[in-house]
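Why does residue order matter? Because the sequence determines the fold. Keep that principle in mind as you read this record.
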Amino acid sequence: MRRGINILGHKLPFSRSGQVSLRVGAGFTVTELMVAISLMGVIIFALTAVFNQTQKALRRTEIQNDISEKGRSVLELVTRELEQVVATNFRRETNFYVALTQIPVVYTNRNDPKSLHTNVLNEVFLQTRSVNQWAGIGFRVVDPMTGGPARDGIGSLERFTPDPVRIFPIDNYFSRLFVNSLTATNNPAYRTNFHHIAQGVVHFQIKVLDLDGRRLGWDTTNINTGYPLVRLDSKGALMKPALINTASNIVDAPILVRQVFPGGSPETSFAFRSNALPAFLEFELGIIDPETFRNYLTMRTDRNPNAGAFALNRLGKVQLFRQLIPIRQAAQ
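Structure:
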């Protein structure tokens, strides 16, 4: 009879050579190994998916933080500059003006087809004075590749700052430099006056408010404007409707309010001259995410004809910033 040895309640038999056999039973079957490997694969796949989603969320949060930081910086800069506008008190000299540089772009949020928003690109100019020096400051969204008018509703914000002068230059010297620079982008004398502020700007709008905080425009009455208005239609002709505080002298009127588009569009351009200044400004800024802006520039560089459509389909990825700016120098 073969003997065995009892270890922890198990009787292990001797082999033919007299050694104890440690084999208790059979190992894993092929089916069991495949099931185990499959379960490990499912667990690894689930962990990878969770890791990727976490990484994407972190990247989105980082991008949003970058946009928020850039937007707040631009908002603070432009607000600080606009608050410095002063009246020249010279006849027919422009103190402040706002104009439209591109046809507004209406886009639909892809996540909400019923949600519509209009992106507006304004340019703004103002006169400032520091101690005994006069200066003009302007902001404009331009094409990032040519420096000319922005196209496809996306551009780079630039700040216009020519050299200041000690004696105030008449004949709208600073404002003419700023206006002419839009059509003379290849002239080094104009381009040296511009400095880059931010990229990926798709909305830059300045709304003018009256002393009561109501929107001022060609289509509003604005009883308490403080100054007589001249209201012009889109062709530059004096508007005839019986609107309150409408002046008849176009040449010397302190405020020129002009309709941009014929019809019912509220878009308005403004020119405050002589001793006139706006009471309040509402500044709105919209910035697109950096990745979309880089892709757009790459398509433009490659002369891809779909660059415009690409931009239009992604204008919904915009973070908006808004600031109400009181003009302390305005007549109260």
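The first strand starts at residue 4 and ends at 7.
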